């Protein structure tokens, strides 16, 4: 077991201290720390590294996000492929822009309130119990509504992503190998995400639905890449023209149907319209006439 300490950082840093430089001043200069794949299981106090901006701790055995709240200048945090089960102690990282948490045991995306500068969130391939799916805390989604531009939620057994509609500045959504089933749900989402230009959904059941690609291209003017394949202007224009022609035929058919109904109504009126002038003759009237 290995703990990430200041001594360990100082010994392994590429940035070497100058002669007669104090430890405190030396630690302040460190901006990047890379301890990926070092069997680290815990993080100790890193507050003396006041200018730390990028921290690589992927492929370790870390089970808790501790002592990170003091790294207030952190912009990039790489914690993928560890043993984390929840997101915690990150709310003071106001400058955080990119967060990598894929390959952990996280069941709920939460605890990111206040991170209004977060642009990228990668939470793919969580190791969840059989039958469970990754969930989003509405408070976290609300907090990231204006900042998040890239979201990776691949391979998390997710069957509904309509809640992501709040992410108004999202431009890349990677959600491959999930359980998305309904094209209508995706159409709903694309109508909300007006800046989305890339969406990857390969490996979802919905990809096998008839006209899946056509329907999504038609509903989104901003989408440029779908499932790794570019949407060319010619393809989009062809579909727009095809839909316009189809809609025109429907309207024409309805008009013809209404005209036919109106003609039938006029014919019926002309044929039977004078019937009310005929005075019925009753048996009693016939007897009096005699």
TrEMBL record:
Tagged with keyword rRNA-binding: no
CDD domains listed in its UniProt record: PPP1R42 (cd21340)
Lineage: superkingdom: Eukaryota
Cell compartments where the protein resides: Cytoplasm, Cytoskeleton, Microtubule organizing center, Centrosome
Main location: cytoplasm
Function statement: Regulates phosphatase activity of protein phosphatase 1 (PP1) complexes in the testis.
Complex and partners: Interacts with PPP1CC isoform gamma-2; the interaction is direct. Interacts with actin, dynein, KIF5B, KIFC1 and tubulin. Associates with microtubules.
Name listed for the protein in its UniProt record: Protein phosphatase 1 regulatory subunit 42
Organism: Mustela putorius furo
Phylogenetic placement of the source organism: Eukaryota, Metazoa, Chordata, Craniata, Vertebrata
């Amino acid at each position: 077991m290995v703990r990430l300490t200041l001594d360990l950082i100082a010994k392994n840093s590429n940035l070497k201290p100058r002669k007669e430089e104090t430890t405190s001043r030396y630690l302040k200069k460190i901006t990047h720390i890379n301890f990926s794949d070092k069997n680290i299981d815990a993080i100790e106090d890193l507050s003396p590294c006041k200018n730390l901006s990028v921290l690589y701790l992927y492929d370790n055995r870390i089970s808790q996000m501790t002592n990170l709240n003091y790294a207030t200048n952190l912009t990039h945090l790489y914690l993928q492929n560890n043993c984390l089960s929840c997101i915690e102690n990150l709310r003071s990282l106001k400058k955080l822009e990119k967060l990598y948490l894929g390959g952990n045991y996280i069941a709920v995306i939460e605890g990111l309130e206040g991170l209004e500068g977060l642009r990228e969130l990668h939470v793919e391939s969580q190791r969840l119990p059989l039958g469970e799916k990754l969930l989003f805390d509405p408070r976290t989604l609300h907090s990231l509504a204006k900042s998040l531009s890239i979201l990776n939620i691949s391979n998390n057994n997710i069957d509904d992503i309509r809640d992501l509609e709040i992410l108004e500045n999202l431009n890349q959504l990677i959600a491959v190998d999930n359980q998305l089933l309904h094209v209508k749900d995706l159409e709903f989402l694309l109508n909300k995400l007006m800046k989305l230009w890339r969406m990857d959904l390969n490996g979802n059941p919905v990809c096998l639905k008839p006209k899946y690609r056509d329907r999504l291209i038609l509903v989104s003017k901003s989408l440029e890449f779908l499932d790794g394949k570019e949407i060319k202007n010619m393809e989009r224009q062809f579909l727009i023209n095809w839909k316009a022609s189809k809609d025109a035929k429907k309207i024409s058919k309805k008009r013809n149907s209404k005209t036919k109904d109106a003609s039938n109504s006029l014919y019926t009126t002309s044929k039977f319209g004078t019937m009310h002038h005929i005075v019925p003759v009753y048996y009693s009237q016939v007897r009096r006439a005699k």
